[in-house]
Amino acid sequence: MLFFSYFCHMKFTLHTTDVHTRARVGTIETAHGNIETPIFMPVGTAGTVKAVHQRDLVQDIQAQIILGNTYHLYLRPGLDILQQAGGLHKFNGWEKPILTDSGGYQVYSLAATRKIKEEGVTFSSHIDGSKHVFTPESVMDTQRKIGADIIMAFDECPPAMSDYTYTRKSMELTHRWLQRCVNRFDATTSLYGYAQTLFPIVQGGIFKDLRAESASFASALDREGYAIGGLAVGEPIDVMYEMVDFVCPLLPANKPRYLMGVGTPANVLENIALGVDMFDCVMPTRNARNGMLFTTEGTINIKNKKWENDFSPIDATLGGYASTHYTKAYLRHLIQAGEMLGAMIASNHNLTFYLWLVREARLQILAGTFHTWKTSMVEKLSRRM
Amino acid sequence: MLFFSYFCHMKFTLHTTDVHTRARVGTIETAHGNIETPIFMPVGTAGTVKAVHQRDLVQDIQAQIILGNTYHLYLRPGLDILQQAGGLHKFNGWEKPILTDSGGYQVYSLAATRKIKEEGVTFSSHIDGSKHVFTPESVMDTQRKIGADIIMAFDECPPAMSDYTYTRKSMELTHRWLQRCVNRFDATTSLYGYAQTLFPIVQGGIFKDLRAESASFASALDREGYAIGGLAVGEPIDVMYEMVDFVCPLLPANKPRYLMGVGTPANVLENIALGVDMFDCVMPTRNARNGMLFTTEGTINIKNKKWENDFSPIDATLGGYASTHYTKAYLRHLIQAGEMLGAMIASNHNLTFYLWLVREARLQILAGTFHTWKTSMVEKLSRRM
Question: What is the C-alpha to C-alpha distance for residues A323 and A295, in angstroms, rounded to an integer?
Answer without folding.
Answer: 9
